[in-house]
Design goal:
The structure is a homodimer of 347-residue chains. The first copy, chain A, is an alpha/beta fold. Helix content of chain A is 44%, strand content 14%. Chain A has helices at residues 9-16, 20-28, 35-47, 54-61, 77-92, 106-118, 132-143, 167-180, 197-211, 236-248, 262-274, 308-324, and strands at 66-71, 96-101, 123-127, 148-151, 160-165, 186-189, 221-222, 256-259, 284-286, 303-305, 333-336, 339-341. In chain A, the strands form three sheets. The first copy, chain A, has a six-stranded parallel beta sheet. In chain A, α5 (77-92) links the parallel β1 and β2. In chain A, α1 crosses α3 (35-47) and α8 packs across α9 (197-211). Chain A binds a DNA duplex (30 and 30 nucleotides) through α2 and α4.
DNA sequence: TGATAACATGTTAACGTTAACTTAATTATT
DNA sequence: AATAATTAAGTTAACGTTAACATGTTATCA
């Protein structure tokens, strides 16, 4: 069977005996069409399996009513929350959402961004970790007048709005909570060189120590040994597990841990239990994110909740404004507050 | 500042003093262009922030080299694995991947599928749970000659390839493992009316009981009370937790649990521990999926591993074949084997 | 009754790109 | 030196849709 060329508006028009424009009006439900004609057209559409060609439509209309979201770590439940909030906000305004994943590298960032802009999305929300190559490419995209909003990520540009949570303060509060409980040797697990949100959390940790006049012991700050993202199957839990093992082998081990996120904390908890130590009696632990699982660990996990849904909603709203108003306003910045959720891993 | 119309090929052509076709050749790196001209064109592209209009290009070329993936539960780490495998397979062949989420309803399924086909993706991979409205719409899409592959989901159509894991056998093996350990009162948590893979897992459970001549006690089979997906923030862990509570309140409680997936199992474990019971001594438990976290639960979780990456790879390969060959072949079906991973929650 | 509004269609000309073809100059081959 | 192959362009005509405008036809109103 030779490849059937898909039916077009004109095919439908010819088959019914009307002008293509009439068919277009039926398909888009605008303009005047008599009920009689409408039904004939709809029948023909069904018979010929007609489906509107999106590319042609987008070309003519000069907009796609679609937004692209580039996510890094998608396995974090909070990325899902974010994506869902973005999608809900968009779909309420008639926009749809395409998600691209870029977990590893600048190359993947560029591929994801490129795919989206090549499909003429009307705007982009970028929530990947910052990196040089990706940022350069993103800058080019911004310069070519594509509306962009970034979430929880460094990227400074006059035309790019920004939303994130106050990771610095979150890290500060988490650490202060441990200090308030009397801990003085507090470890940090999940330090990365890459920067981004986890660096801010680390900075909050350092700030709290400084404020309470506790000397920073660099051996207590640990993270993945290598560029983990290159290693397939290397989970965040494992970073926590291996990091904790390292901290436990120190001559003077920490009495408390602040983990960069909940998965890392869970890995660390495994290592602590394996060593025959009790949580929180021997070692207290705080995570970050408040994933749904955090209430199901044993003991339940003290953690810092960040408003992911709100971040997604705000990002989507700012982007829609930029898409619908080309009046180049001031760059907007939202830094949202985190909330310490105290459970049984610290008290 | 008035909205700048984005620069087009012709703008570049005019600015350099060549034909648009020459610029096209530079942009697409095909055909003959002198080094001199090439450089002038590239400079103009930079100066004018030119970006190729994807819609126009896709319209002309009648293909987009893009595939859409519709995912249901994205928060499961294995969905991520699947998405990554799909993406890798596609990108090796020069295709990009757009992911749409449809977590809740037929309405969302239709929205997601519609958005993708309206952007003229070259093919679709559908991994949502089956539902009436969504399936009808998907059928329409298939009838209009869009290549489609489904993963782990009911959908029968001569032109739609299918890949899944053998959930029936996985459920069977999980249950048999418990029976082999001497258990006779085995509970199932996570039964849904919706069908799909969890139903197959339940069938495997029932098959094992039958084969070993154990009478099915319907009170031991439990699941979410309502259409949970409508309740925001209702997690799979909670289904496990609440389901387990129900089973524990039975006059004669089960001695072992087969949970529909690992998150459900984790929720159930919390309930068991809260009741002051020991795992596996008082109640043994098996999950499904082998999420990275499964080694980090206390005790570590016996579970059924399914090859998500392989599923994604096979799906992508079959789809690419359908896209590149319109020879309508036989429908292909891959049902992959699961593997029981025995850890400390059962032994 | 004539004027106006609402309805029902048709016509035309893009939207920005590229496949297919043509032309012309240069280089290689016999 | 004549012919063929390669290189470097330009020209034309779509791809399928819709905005904008044009043209009738029927209902509504003063």
């Amino acid at each position: 069977m030779p490849k059937k060329r898909p039916a077009t508006l004109s095919d439908i028009a010819a088959s019914v005996g009307v002008a293509p424009m009439t068919v277009s009006r039926v398909v888009n439900e605008n303009g005047y069409v008599s009920e009689q004609t409408r039904e004939k057209v709809l029948q023909a559409i069904k018979d010929l399996n007609y489906r509107r060609n999106g590319s042609a439509r987008n070309l003519k209309r000069r907009c796609t009513e679609t937004v692209g979201l580039v996510l890094g770590d998608i396995s974090n439940p909070y990325s899902t929350e974010l994506a869902n909030a973005v999608r809900e906000t968009l779909s309420a305004r008639g926009f749809s959402l395409f998600i691209c994943i870029s977990e590893h590298s600048a190359k993947e960032d560029i591929a994801a961004l490129g795919a989206l802009v090549n499909h003429s999305v009307d705007g982009l929300i970028v929530a990947t970790r910052s990196n040089k190559g990706g940022d350069e490419y993103l800058r080019e995209i911004v310069e070519s007048n594509v509306p962009v909003v970034v979430i929880g990520r460094d990227f400074h540009h006059a035309d790019v709005d920004f939303v994130s949570t106050d990771n610095l303060n979150g890290g500060f509060e988490a650490t202060r909570h441990l200090i308030d409980l009397g801990h003085r040797r507090i470890g940090f697990i999940g330090a990365t060189l890459g920067g981004g949100s986890s660096l801010k959390r680390l900075q909050g940790y350092l700030k709290a120590l400084e404020q309470y006049k506790i000397t920073v012991d660099e051996r207590l700050v640990t993270g993945p040994r290598e560029a983990i993202s290159e290693v397939p199957g290397y989970s965040t839990e494992r970073i926590g597990y291996e990091g904790m093992k390292r901290l436990l082998s120190l001559p003077e081990r920490p009495t408390a841990i602040f983990a960069r996120n909940d998965f890392t904390a869970i890995g660390a908890m495994t290592a602590i239990k394996e060593a025959g130590l009790k949580i929180p009696e021997d070692i207290a632990i705080v995570g970050f994110d408040d994933i749904p699982l955090a209430v199901h660990t044993a003991p339940s996990l003290t953690t810092v909740r960040q408003p992911m849904r709100l971040q997604g909603k705000l990002a989507a709203e700012m982007l829609l404004e930029r898409i619908e108003n080309d009046s180049v306003e001031q760059r907007r910045e939202h830094v949202l507050n985190c909330e310490l959720i105290i459970r049984n891993s610290t008290v």
